[in-house]
Every structure is written in structure tokens, then in C-alpha cells.
Amino acid sequence: MDDYLNKGPHGALSGGRDKKKTAWPAVFLGAVVFACLIPFAGKAFNVDDPLYIWIARHIQSNPMDFFGFNINWRGVLEPVYRFYENPPLSSYYMAVVAKLFGWSEAALHMAFFVFAAAAAIGTYYLARELCSRPLTAALAGVLTPVFMISATTVMCDMMMTAFWVWAVFLWMRGLDKRSVPSVVLASLFIAASSLSKYVGMSLVPLLLCYSFARKQGRWAWFLLIPVAALAGYDWITYVLYGRGLLLNAASYAVSYPGKSFFNFIIGLVFIGGCLISVLFYSFSIWRKKALITGALIMAVILTFVPPGTFLEPFPGAIVRFQNDPVFHWLFITQFYLFALGGASAMAVTFSDLWKARDSGSLLLFLWVVGIFLFLCLLNWTINARTVLLIFPPMGILIMRAIERASAPGKSSARFIPQGRFFVIAPLIPSLIIALTAALTDYNWAGSQRSAAVSIGGSYQGQGNLWFMGHWGFQYYMEEFGGKPADFMRTAIRPGDVIVSPANNSYVLPLFLFRGYASIRETRIDSPGWAATMNPFAGAGFYGDKVSGPLPFIIAPVPEEKYFILTAVRPFAMRPPQAGN
Q1: Does the predicted TM-score (pTM) go above 0.85?
Q2: Domain residues of the chain, as ranges?
Q3: Of 33, 187, 302, 548, which one is least surrounded by beta carbons within 10 A?
Q4: What is the pLDDT of residues 155-191, one digit of tens each?
Q5: For residues 526-548, b (16+ Cβ closer than 10 Å) or e, as one string?
Q6: 571: phi then psi, degrees, rounded to nearest 5
Q7: Is the peptide bond before 575 cis (omega within 30 degrees of 0)?
Q8: Are 248 and 379 in contact (CB under 8 A)?
Q9: Are 11 and 413 spatial neighbours (Cβ–Cβ below 8 Å)?
């Protein structure tokens, strides 16, 4: 028992400094990450990937004016700085990588796998400071859908998370050893995290609170380093673009309408689904009575707020929900289980603070609760990209809870007995679901590339080929000479072709084109029995307001539809009105 309750600088459940520590678990963890991700290296660029790529291409030719060009990403041609809500560090990195290895999917994905491995290894080293099972803690966070899917994009999220985790670890070690170099490096990593994605600046108040909890507030002066870096970035963007993009992004997030109590339920659903390992570990963490009581409470809440309520903004999904018994029950079951997992995750967080009451528990508590509140109340949409930041502390919190449950006389009250095998066993179903979700997203991205190859190749060189919709579909359509339709400027001539995907963003309703164009439908094979982003299945991994209240769903998914419009009369994209 001394091995599990060894006193350390961060509380009773700390790993302790007197234990022998080797590097092989970190090497093993990095190997696991690469082994899981290598099959996805050829994944088609998807969702916001193209934005980062285009900015990187512009940086290669004009590195001092990173947002100084125009893109049609929202149905109109506009400067990038007006809508792009992230800083450019990840695109600078991509520009360097592409200069050396090219712009292929495999080259860029492999370059970003490095950050996935770094985030995982950083979680392991952080867990060594806070629990006695650091490798299992890291695996509990890594072998989840949110990690696997996020690691197979070339967006900024994994880079930001890697810098975040290492900043926390280095800050913690810096305070422990009174090491100025460690604290300075941590401060630089905070700046790097913030310049990868603005939410990284949350590290400043987080580590400020942690430092004062350790009664080492004098070290907080080093947090002025990332503050100065962000202030400098805001000033540079003001000089370049006439607005401070840091403050602009903050005002955009808090001003977005539609936040309500329902957001907390969807937030729990996203945490429970994205971090599915929490659900499987709940049977080892909680006493039988507590687990049953929690399940009943969640059932009562969802009785008064039926899961179908959250599908109402998605007509295609609500029709299926009401008329397809298989989909109906699959959706309800997964919504309930994910919500239960999310509630368990938050309960573990509060329980750890209540029972441990040390600086480590405070750090983990503020980390998880802060991101949860940002997810539900501040961000413009609830998405898995924000939940990604919770994977490091959640794995640690799970192991700390299991350590407490392993105390004599406590394990017998759980559904699953304690023991080395039962601590590792929940990782197996978590890994299976994580890889299934990653494969689903891989297939969905590939279906958009396939649609662009099929449709774009068929109409290439036959006149004007326009398209609506963006994401990866736009990236590949432009490779075949397609042009994104501008809703304010594009003039359509007879014989022009317009492609409109059913599952995409910024697409005009087809009834506007009646009398102006003939419409036919083509279908691309769906990802099968799962979806990560589909408004007809209620899955919205990259944004609940875009596609639905589940981060992913295992259910029969409709085929991806694309509508081909051939103009028979000249018209402007806006305003063609029905009956005119």
C-alpha cells in the first residue's frame, strides 16, 4: 500500500520522488501513439484543415503578413483575418514542413503525429508527479476518440495541447526544484500554446492559482512572459489588419448567442463520448450504490429533457428519430451512456478535490472545470476539439480515484474487483471505440475527396464548375478547377454547373434555384455504421450547432448526397428567389 499512497510534493496520491523512474514507459507510449496513427497518415484533409494549409502556403511567400489574403470560406470572398479565429503558429510549422517534404497528406499528417506523441508523453511525465500509475493514466487519456481523431487532423489543437501539457509539467517541476530555467521554459511553452490556439492563454490563470496554492506566488512573475508575447501578437495584428485579433476572437466567443442550460447536458455528452474510457472505469471507481444512484438521476434528467429535443435543429435527423426505431434507440442509448460518462468525469473531478485537498487536486480541478465551462458557455459551439484539453487530467484523475478505491475494505463494494488486470482491462473497449471513431472520420474525409475526384473530374474543362460548401470538399474541388460560389458576386450562365453537398457548411437551400437550374442527385458511399459529423445522424464531433449533439454515433448512416445543378437560365447566386 505504501507504493500507492507514497507522499510527494503534490499530495497523498503523488507518485513520490523516491521511486525509481525510467524512460521506457515514455518510449512505449510514443510507440503506441505512432502505431495507432500511422494507418491514418493518408487521411484526406477535412473540416478546417484547408484553412491552415492555405495560410501556410501564403506564409511561405509572405511570412511577415500571415493573414494578408482573401478566401471564400463562408460563401463570400473576404480577408482571412475577418473570420479566422486562431493564431498562425501551427501554419508556420506547416510551412516549414512542407518546404522540406511537400504538401501531401502523408507528409503533413506525419509531421503533426509528432505533437500527438509529445502530448501523450507529456501526460505521462505529468502523471508521474500526481499518481502512482502514470503509464495507465496516460493511456486512459490517449486511447479515446477525441485523441485519435484530433491527432489525424492538421489543425492547431494537438500542437496547442502538447505545449500546454509540457508547460504544466515544467512549471510544476520548476516550482519543486526552484529552477528558473524550467519556469522560463514553461512560460515560453505557455506562449507557444497560446499562439497555437488562443485558449492556451488559460494556462496563465491556471498556473497562477496553482502557484499560490503551493505558497510560491513569487514565481508568478514569470507568467508575464506569455502575457507579453500575447500582447505583442495583438499589437502586431492591429498594425497589420487594423484590429487586435486576440481581443477580437475573445469578443466573438462570448457574444455568440444560444447558450442555455441545455449546453451543460450536451457538454457532458461530449466529454463522456470523447473520453469514453471514463465510462468503462466508472465500474471500478464508484461504489455500486453510488453508480446506480447516478444512473437513475441521469435517467430522470433525460426523462424531463428527452434526447430528441437536441435534434430539433436538424430536420433530417429528427425525421429519422421519429420514424426509424433502430436509429431512435441507438441514439437514445448512446446519448444516455455518453451523458452518464460525462457526469462520472465531473464527479471524479469534484471528488478528487474534496478528498485530496492538495495543490495537485486543485490543479486538476481547475483544469477540468475551467475547460468544461469554456466548452459550455464561452466557445461558439460545443465541440470535441475543446474537449481534447481534458484528456491529460482525466486520465490522472481516473487513476487517483482507483488508487483510493484500492484501499482495504473499499474494493468489495464495486462492480469490478481491483487488480492489475482490471485496471488495464477498460483500456481495451476504449481503444476499440477510439479506433472505430477515427476510422469513421477517416472514411468521411475520404468520401469528400472521392466526391471531388468523381464530380470534379467529370465536369473538368466543360465550362464553369462552381460549388457550394467548404471543408475538405473545397480543397479537393479546387484541385479540379472548381470555384467556390460567392453568394454576393457570382453570376451563373446557362450551362454552368453548381455542386451542392448535403452534409457541409454554408450551402444555400436548393428551393432557391427552382426554375433556374435542373437538379440531379449523386451519392457517395457513407462511412457505414458510424458517423462523426452528420446532421442526418445527429453527430457533430467538430461542432454541435453544425451537425448534432453527439460527438459520434454508432448507427446506420445515410449515404453522402451531392446535388448537381445545371443552370438553364442566367441568374446571380443571390438573390435567386422561388417564383421570380
Answers
A1: yes
A2: 447-572
A3: 302
A4: 999 999 999 999 999 999 999 999 999 999 999 999 9
A5: bbeebbbbbbbbbbbbbbbbbbb
A6: -165, 165
A7: yes
A8: no
A9: no
